[in-house]
Each structure stands twice: as C-alpha cells, then as structure tokens.
Design goal:
Elements (H helix, E strand, L loop, with lengths): L1 H10 L3 H14 L4 H13 L3 H11 L7 H14 L7 H6 L3 H14 L3 H14 L4 H13 L22 E6 L6 H8 L5 E3 L14 H4 L6 H17 L7 H15 L5 H15 L3 H19 L6 E5 L10 H4 L3 E6 L2 H11 L7 H21 L7 E5 H6 L1 H10 L15 H7 L9 H10 L12
Parallel strand pairs: 1-3, 1-4, 2-3, 4-5
Helix pairs in contact: 1-2, 1-3, 2-3, 3-4, 3-5, 4-5, 7-8, 8-9, 9-14, 12-13, 12-14, 14-15
Length: 456
C-alpha cells in the first residue's frame, strides 16, 4: 500500500513528499525490494543521482541481503552513474550468488582448471534458475572456451535445427527518435512475431558481436571476448561493470530462464562452436548472421515466419547490420528539437547539454549517411524513415509495410500504435520552457528540422 501511494504522489508531482514516506518505510523495512525500487525510481525522476547511489551502497553493508535486492541495487547503481563509471568495488559487493559463481568459474578456466571451472559454472546456472533442459548445452559452450581447447578443433553439432525460411525485421533508432512507435505499428500485423526487449547482442559494448568481429586475428583476446559474450549477452549470469552490461544481462537472463526446452542454449552453443572455427572477419560475419537466423527461428511464434526485433542496431553503427544477416532494417529519424525535448523529459540519464546533443545528433546522422552511401547495394534493405511523416501519414506507413512485405489486410489497427498520441510528440518542443535552446538547435541543425505543416 505504501509503494502504491508513493507512486501516485510521484506521478502527480509530489516526489519529495513521496521520498520522505519511502525513507521512513525503509528504516522499518530495509530489506523491502518494492520500497527500495520505488525510492530509486523517485530519486531518478528528480535526477537525484547521489541519493540513488547512496541507497544502493547502503545495500552492501546490509547483513544477509537477498539476491533480488542486490540485483535491484546493481541496476540502479549503474543507471545512476551518468559517466558510465560506477564504483566497481561497490558493484562487486552487490554481486549475487550466481554472478560470484560465474566470476569464479572464469578465474578457474583462465588458470587451466577446466574440470573445476565447469563444475562451478554449472552451479552458477542452477543458482540463476536456468532450466535443466538447457544446462548441458551451456556447460558444453563454456567448456569449449577453455585454454586447453585449440581454436578450430571443435566439432560442429547442428543436426535437427529448424531450416524453414525466416524473415527478419529490425527497427533502429538513436535514442527517443520514435522507433518505439514504428515497432508498435509493425507489431499490429498478425504475420509478425515480435521479440520483446532491446537485445544487446549486436550493437554496443565490448561484449557484442560487433566487438567480437574486431578481435578475430587475436586468438587470446577473441577467446576472452567470446567468454565475456557468453556470460553477459547470452546467459546473463555475468557480473557487470556499467549500464550497457546491466541491460545486456537483464535481457539475456530473461531469455535463458524462459528456455524451457533448451533450444536457445543449443543455438548459442552452436554459435560458440562455429565462432571458434572461423579464421577471418568475413567468416565470422557469416557465422553471426546464421546465429541471428537461428535465434529468429526459435523466437518466431507458430507459423509466423517474420520476426521483429527492437533497437538491436544503433543508427550510428549501421554497419553492424551485416552481423544480423539478410533482414529489413527500419531506421527512424526524428526532428532534433522534439528528439532533444523527449530525451530531456523522458530519460533521467540524459545529460541535458545542448551543445553535446547537437554534436551527437549531427555526427550520428552524418555517419549513417556516409556509410549507406558508401555501398548502396549493401544497404538495399535499409529504409530511412521520418518519425514525423510516419505519424502523420497513413499512406507513408503503408509504404513501410510494403517494404517489409506485410499485408495491410492482416493488420489489427490500433492494437499497439496510437497515432494521435504520437502526433502530439512531434511538436513537444513548442512548450519547452527554454526556447533559446530550441532556437539554437534550429540554427545548428536546421537541415534536419521538420516543417510541421508539410512533414518535410
């Protein structure tokens, strides 16, 4: 009841009163996860990052803190660290039981104690709640990364995989650029199976496929990269050191825990095997593309052979599409004025520095344009979409559906996409309190600003 009341107070603008109530409650129930979460959300809303960090650090000195409370503290500690450099000693203290097991298994594997490492790794999987049907596959994948295994000597085991044709769609954005609305629209077609969450496998961080592709020629570094990829982006059982890794383990752990028949683990194990056998970047790209196809097959629902992914590739790193394989990629761009305003109000982590935003926006768009124009044939399946035109024009939306190979008659209009709500967001900058900031964006990024009357 206290959490519900505090949440209502926060949503109607009485965050400080709610915070006082939550602090009082935490003194009486310091181990309450729901109260802890609401307090951190409350402080994030008003950008009191120090308050969040202090509360997370307090968990480290609590006797017998539950794993779930440590997980919540790790999540908010990394999120509140705007420079993406949280206190690593605090994060280590917040490691849950399976993260500690994972870290220990890594150390044992690096020391060449493969048998003991595998035992500890399996213990970590059990502590993490990974289904029994998947344990063998994960243990096999981990064992392949031992220092005593020679690269290229692993036997491939891929028999029995679903080989039915699959089509992949991915919506890409640049943080609050409107890609969520496009994802919602495409999800209204009954031909589509939508994969929930913004999976971190492809696009960013030193644990991604994109990062691995840069390490092929360095065997030791590549093997360690695969190990990090396994723990962070595939099983979600690894320890974290920043916000990107925190998001990655959250999504991966959910996928691993829901893998009741072990099919996800099998696909990941096959990828590890094949990745260890490649000798150059082109081979790795092909292996990653096959891996992407396999994931799409197991996540496709029933007979739906069009699988939709959300924000797995960033517009500024569009070259990573090669790792995703043959797919249609929808890249959503938004008027920089409304983009800045949306990030200001909706993202507590946004730095709110207009100069920095202008540089980021310009560099991201120019990087995208340069890469796509470099080889138009390579990016023939990449479609540039204007968020403003998308929300204002049904005809424009129809062209996107056609590009994706979707049948307009099979769309459940209004199930997820709300055009009236999205239209309001296209001119949100008009009510921004500091119009001098908006004028500066117009001056510096005028070429990307949209005429609200024409949508151009």
């Amino acid at each position: 009841m206290i959490v519900i009341f505090a949440k209502i107070l926060r949503k109607i603008g009485y965050s400080e009163a709610a915070a006082s109530l939550l602090i009082w409650s935490l003194k009486r129930r310091p181990d309450s996860i729901s109260i802890f979460r609401e307090y951190c959300l409350n402080r994030m809303t008003v950008r009191d990052f120090t308050g969040v960090i202090d509360r997370c650090e307090a968990v480290t000195i609590m006797p017998n803190a539950e794993d779930a409370l440590k997980d919540a503290a790790s999540f908010f500690l990394t999120r509140a660290s705007l420079k993406n450099k949280p206190n690593l000693s605090v994060l280590k203290s917040l490691q849950n039981s399976f993260q500690k097991a994972s870290s220990h298994s890594k150390e044992l594997q690096e020391a060449g104690e493969d048998k003991e490492a595998s035992k500890v790794f399996g213990k970590g999987l059990n502590l993490a709640g990974i289904p029994n049907a998947a344990i063998f596959e994960w243990e096999t994948a981990f064992g392949l990364l031992g220092k005593n295994m020679a690269l290229g000597d692993t036997p491939l085991k891929s028999a029995g995989e679903d080989s039915k044709p699959i089509s992949k769609l991915a919506v890409s954005g640049m943080y609050w650029s409107g890609s969520g609305a496009v994802y919602a629209y495409l999800n209204e077609f009954d031909q589509v199976s939508a994969v929930p969450g913004e999976l971190r496998l492809w696009k960013e961080g030193n644990f991604s496929l994109n990062s691995l592709s840069q390490k092929i020629k360095k065997q030791v570094e590549f093997r360690k990269g695969l190990q990090h990829f396994l723990f962070t982006a595939l099983t979600g059982t690894g320890a974290v050191s920043n916000w990107q890794e925190q998001m990655a383990v959250d999504y991966a752990l959910k996928a691993a825990r829901e893998d009741l028949n072990g099919s996800y683990a099998k696909v990941c194990r096959i990828f590890i095997e094949e990745a260890l056998s490649v000798s150059n970047k082109d081979e790795f790209t092909k292996t990653a593309a096959n891996f992407s196809d396999s994931l799409a097959r197991i996540w496709g629902a029933g007979d739906n052979r069009i699988v939709l992914f959300d924000n797995i590739i960033h517009i500024g790193g569009i070259e990573a599409t090669a790792l995703f394989g043959d797919a249609k990629i929808i890249c959503v761009f938004r008027d920089p004025r409304s983009n800045f305003t949306a990030r200001w109000y909706e993202n507590p982590r946004f730095h709110r520095d207009v100069e920095r935003f202008i540089t980021y926006y310009r560099d991201t768009v120019q990087s995208f344009d340069k890469e796509v124009s470099r080889n138009p044939a390579e990016y023939r399946n990449v479609l540039r979409v204007s968020f403003e035109q998308f929300v204002h024009s049904e005809e424009y939306r129809n062209t996107i559906a056609d590009f994706c190979g979707l049948d307009l008659k099979r769309r459940k209009d209004g199930k997820f996409f709300r055009p009236l709500k999205s239209k309001k967001n296209t001119t949100n900058y008009k009510s921004f309190p500091d119009q001098a900031v908006i004028r500066k964006i117009e001056k510096e990024l005028g070429a990307y600003c949209i005429d609200e009357l024409t949508g151009d």
